[in-house]
## 1
Amino acid sequence: MKAKGITLIHGNASARLAEEISRHLGVKLTDVLVTKFKDGEIRVQIKENIRGSDVFIIQSTNPPADNLLELLLLADAAKRASAKRITAVIPYFGYARQDRKDQPRVPISAKVMADLIQVVGVNRVLTLDLHADQIQGFFDIPVDNLFVTPVIKEYFGELDPSIWTVVAPDVGATKRARAIARKLGNLPLALIDKRRPEPNVAEVLNVIGTVEGKKLLILDDIIDTGNTIVVAANRLKELGALEIRVAAAHALFSDNAVEKLCRAPVEEVVITNSIEHRKEFNMKKLKILSVAPLLAEAIRRIHKEESVSALFI
Ligand code: R5P
């Protein structure tokens, strides 16, 4: 799948993923300097001529905020270098969970991110499993929000609906879980009624659906502190689940999430490489799937002005 006329740039947050995407596309990465001045300010420079080219900047915007800043500065550099079009490829779109004013005097951070990304001259966004679909509406430019469904489907294959049930760990995860349950073989769905008494703390109030004697696949978009998954798995085990596996698009693994997941009654934790971590995790039950082929194909289609909807399987 060679695609010419594409410029692939990446920041420090998505270096390995960008390498993989570059291999899939048969397009070499453009030489870019992304470093720091002595005072800590970010310094970027695109080292090759990109005038008139179709530029894709690959960078997840998980913390630290430097990741977002690198993306913004790279986009500005590309705009001022006369790129024909700039697509921000944001495998993990940070600040997406702050997508509404749910308390007095709080920002809608996801909207602020969208505004910043647009103001520097990004023409379109390619992202994966946005926390809430409606964030697309925070942008006035096209947003292609792909789902990791095909990657998950390829890994798990077809599961037996008399044995397996998909679990949505909160109401927000229901739509995504239902879609995956259908793809994996019309599996039954169970829902968890989750409450957050305070940020980063999760409590299970009720479980809706049959889980006793079942093998369960808990499906979420994000694993952050791991609390949602751990409290869900503990309760599901108490209710008689036979086996529990977990799949999530994005793994932030903040705090001591890895230790908690290692101890949790979970056989396997399946995540993607949408977020890159500096260290290797010592977790035997962890499986990391690559979203590079999916993103590479989307980039190729965007470049060729072909439909990306075929990727929404
Ligand atoms: C929340 O709405 C998200 O979909 C995830 O369930 C949440 O971000 C997971 O966070 P944590 O792992 O800290 O419970």
## 2
Amino acid sequence: MSYVIAPSILSADFAHLADEVRSIEGAADWAHVDVMDNHFVPNLTFGLPVVKSLLAATSLPLDCHLMIEDPARWAPGYAEAGAYNVTFHAEASRDPAAVARDIRAAGSLAGLAIDRDTPLEPYLEILPAFDTLLIMTIKAGFGGQAFIPELLDKVRQARKHVAAGHLSIRIEVDGGINADTIGLAAEAGADAFVAGTAVYGEADRAAAVASLRDLALAAAQSR
Ligand code: DX5
Ligand code: ZN
């Protein structure tokens, strides 16, 4: 099993985004890019033009997490631009499987995000349409929030379902992932980890990524 560490640039310095994303090259697997539209979530970050600039600035695969309304309209554009993975929220879509088809057709992996208050159960049957499943371990919208351990029940449920159905989908966790919590998420069955504060809050980002990876691997071995 391989583990993905995806630092979230939400905690980076937005005035120097290109340098900030380059500071994790060689250490991180993906750069996690939080797009927020001030409608689906109260917060506002950036959209496709900034993501296009980032794509030109880094060799890292971009893991775009769209916290936006109407993903059917906007998500395929991120795939066309060259994002590696495009994740949108289940709560924002009437037909998530159709949006996933459009994302895949445009050349990216497709991801489904499940927010804090959303049960996973109704979405289990459409998981084959997706390459990644992003389980929020906080309420989506802001970095720096405290990890909610109870939400790992959804990770365990997803891991069980994926194993039973032999699905090839990554189970990603996002929110409050740090040295104290990454092991719990790995034990629960996550294999991709988003970390904002725990990477960009450290002076040596590469070292922060490496130590998170070690902790995830160590915990998974005891699973
Ligand atoms: C919040 C974002 C997260 C955020 C995580 O809605 O989806 O990716 O950056 O930040 P930390 O790791 O600080 O909780
Ligand atoms: Zn995110």
